[in-house]
Amino acid sequence: MRKIFNISVDEVIPPIGSVLAAQGIPLHLKPDERTLHLAEEAILLFRRYAQPTGIVMEISRDDFDVIYVGDGKNATDSPVEPIYKLSDDLALFAITIDESICAEISKLFERNDFALGSMLDAAASEGAELTAQWIENFYGKHLVKIGRFNNKNDILRFSPGYCGWHMSAQKKIFKTLRPEDIDIELNSSFLMKPLKSISGIIISGQKEIFEFDDTFSFCKDCTTHTCRDRIKAAIDR
Amino acid sequence: MTVIQELSEQLQQGNPKNVAELTRQAINENIDIKTILDKGLIAGMSVIGEKFKAHEIFLPHVLLAAKAMYAGMDLLKPLLLKEGIPTRGKVIIGSVQGDLHDIGKNLVAIMLKGAGFEVIDLGNDVSPEKFLDTAEKENAGVVGMSALLTTTMPVMKKVIDLARARGLYGKKRFIVGGAPLSSEYAKEIGADAYCFDGVSAVETVKRFAGIF
């Protein structure tokens, strides 16, 4: 299975709270009217410029072994490897919300609209995450439909550059998945253009395989620790 | 309230139109250009920096104030050049080779300009050679490097190693910043300082320039 999706922007509009949180404004604080207006304007611009697209492709564990290794620079203790080795199903994915939104962010900065530019950047990052989540949800539903997913299973996605999985795997992901079909390019440093793009692997398997302690050497460099929330949500589901 | 105090106040409120108007008024009243800059614009941005540090305001307020600062600076810049008033110092800034993320670096550049420094922004994906060639050519005292990815952090060390090889280490100051970095990492690679955000970058560069 290899599918390309043009996703409705309405399905990946970031909530105002998460945009404000990405700007360092705690969720429990009520922002002033001007800040609120900026966030609303950023979301309107996101709606106007974002063109979320995604691609997903099933892959066997043997084929993913080759991709995962990349240029052989993964951390020796990455949690991704033991998880995918115990998985039932795997799918490569890539998403983007398009270059036009990145161009709009640059334009805002060029005309000194720093606050709105920064707010739109936050909205775009949040929207990209929601687009990746949309693809993950699609794959989950697909597995349910073909009888390969039940209440003992769960599904999570991982991306190169995180959790000890080296960026060099991008090269092999691109060779197999061909995200160029949705206008995502990879540069020599393994970075994607448009910048607001996400790629990686969606892993489906028994809930227990996703449990791990965040005590790996690279966890100290991680500023988000979103894996904890995502794994907790997966276990609780 | 004097026009200079009002200028600082309007900048803090993030009102670019009022800041431009008051700057024009101060110029027309023959107030010393450096006074308008130091006691009006830069003083206003300093208050903003302090409030941000104390979590009294957040990033959008800082950036609204920065826009107001630029509105005043646009009017002052030609006069500063004409009178030969030097900036507080020159800073080279960029996201390191392999890193296309530049929002954080842009915010630091905005804050440094707001504090009266001349900033040469090299953009993103900047090679170690380009950082140092530009720093030498422009006679900049500070080189600021940004990275968002753990995989591009090692390029910062390459810049510092190259600076050692070229005899620039110790002559120029190297500051680093970005989400995955820490002061420990900065120390490990031989950087002069780790800057958590734009405000700490301004404080650090001021310290290096001998401005307190």
Give the strand line-up of the largest sheet of chain A. Answer: 1-2-3-7-4
Uncertain runs of chain B are none
Oligomer: heterodimer
Give the total of beta strands of chain B: 5
Helix content of chain A: 40-55%
Helix count from the secondary structure assignment of chain A? 8
Q: Which regions of chain A have little confidence, pLDDT < 50, spanning 5+ residues? A: none
Query: First CA to last CA of chain B: what distance?
Result: 26 Å
Question: Count the helices of chain B. How many?
Answer: 9
Helical content of chain B, roughly? 55-70%
Order of helices and strands of chain A: EHHEHHEHHEHEEEH
Q: How many individual domains of chain B?
A: 2
Mean pLDDT rating of chain A:
90
Largest Cβ-defined interface: A-B, 29 and 29 residues
Characterize the main sheet of chain B: 5 strands, parallel
Order of helices and strands of chain B: HHHHEHEHEHEHEH
Side-by-side strand order of the widest sheet of chain B: 2-1-3-4-5
Largest β-sheet summary of chain A = 5 strands, antiparallel
Shape of chain B: globular
Rounded to the nearest angstrom, the radius of gyration of chain B is 18 Å
